[in-house]
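[stage:ingest] chain + small molecule (3-methyl-2-oxobutanoic acid)
[stage:ingest] validated
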Amino acid sequence: MSRITTTLLQDKKAKKEKITMLTSYDYSTAVMVDQAGIDCILVGDSLGNVILGYDSTLPVTMDDMIHHTRAVSRGAKNSLVVGDMPFLSYHVSIPEAIRNAGRFIQEGGAQAVKLEGGEERVDTIKAILDAQIPVMGHIGLTPQSVHQFGGFKVQGKDLETAEQLLRDARALDEAGVFSIVLECVPAALARRVTAEVSVPTIGIGAGPDCDGQVLVINDMLGMYQGFVPKFVKKFANLQPVIAEALQSYKEEVEKGTFPADEHCFAIKEEVLEKLY
Ligand code: KIV
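[stage:predict] done
[stage:export] tokens:
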């Protein structure tokens, strides 16, 4: 199988085939996600919450993101790897945004970047695209704007914010993004955006009519014990499974039943005898 490309995702929209995306932050997970045939792996700045233990994505740095993107890229042979541009990596100046986007490709081994924002980010997005770096947009509940929104709230519920979401989606589409993440918006509004834009929409808390879906892998596998939003379905509940395994390990080590013979390496008796 060859690498999923941004054009292949656009073909999927045209053929009404759903697009799959999950986050990953490390090599072993990326190998499993890739082997499952998931189209895109997002190295999300959600790693701030689920990997680094912050209470928002705001403290995440470019160096954090590059470190994890490199690990994921080593594991993802077929999935399209998208690096998530962290807070302040594309806000200060356009040259800095291009440089940082380039780091995801050159150092991280990603094939594309994602950044949050609508109309206000069009110039930055165009400049990154001019540097031949594919960009995925992200509108609706954009977690890097949590303080501006006054919390993690569904976006686009009233006429004014719904119209703004539509304007943002059209602006990103015209700017040339290859896809748009719609986070935490009413399902009917996401359906309207999806019908209007030429590029695939990827929903998270945006209903079933987006062209694809994304979830944070630690949430959908039931491994994250912090706040998990209503839109997450737990496709597995690994936390109790892991807790039980850890308890068994502790008990067996304490009792001396682990390691057993099959976990040990042998040495010839005569070698042992010669030791002094
Ligand atoms: O950081 C992330 O994981 C994301 C997804 C929730 C879309 O941006």
